[in-house]
Design a protein that fits this description.
Elements: H1 3-9, H2 13-36, H3 41-52, H4 55-59, H5 67-74, H6 79-102, H7 108-128, H8 133-151
Helix pairs in contact: 2-3, 2-6, 3-6, 3-8, 6-7, 7-8
Length: 152
């Protein structure tokens, strides 16, 4: 793409990054919601965590959640990009919070933030360890931890 062609579509590189990240995160959220189907509460949270913390998700990052790959880079992005990213993550946290509240958690937003951080961090570590037995162990440990939280 030429410089002129790029700027005909995006006013700046930050706009491109913002739009790309938002679109990828939206697709990832839709995938999670599809995995949960019409479940709610505890069963929704369980289905989402199992889908997210799966070998299939780990082994196919191009079709998966962009957070594990992009979070480190976003920390160094412009304030505009980070604010847009924060807004998109907040929307995802709010979606998870609804189900955490239905599951009976006293602090649903905090539980949603913790679950998202555990899933994203677990996936980041599992992908970094891909091809080793430790990668599968990380996925299982994260799934098991979420499962224990849901049983309380």
């Amino acid at each position: 793409m030429t410089v002129g062609g790029f700027y005909a579509h995006f006013p700046s590189k930050d706009e491109l990054v913002t739009e790309s990240m938002s679109s990828a995160l939206c697709q990832s959220t839709d995938t999670l919601k599809a995995a949960a189907g019409d479940r709610s509460g505890t069963e929704w949270l369980r289905a989402v965590s199992r889908s997210y913390l799966s070998r299939a998700h780990r082994d196919n990052p191009s079709a998966g959640c962009p957070l594990p790959a992009a979070a480190g880079e976003l920390a160094n992005a412009s304030e505009q990009v980070r604010r847009a990213f924060a807004s998109d993550v907040d929307t995802l946290v709010n979606d998870i919070s609804v189900h955490a509240e239905e599951a009976g958690f006293q602090h649903p937003r905090g539980e949603a933030l913790a679950a998202l951080a555990l899933m994203m961090g677990g996936m980041t570590l599992a992908r970094a360890l891909k091809g080793t037995p430790l990668s599968d162990e990380v996925l299982k440990a994260c799934r098991d931890h979420i499962e224990r939280c849901l049983e309380q």
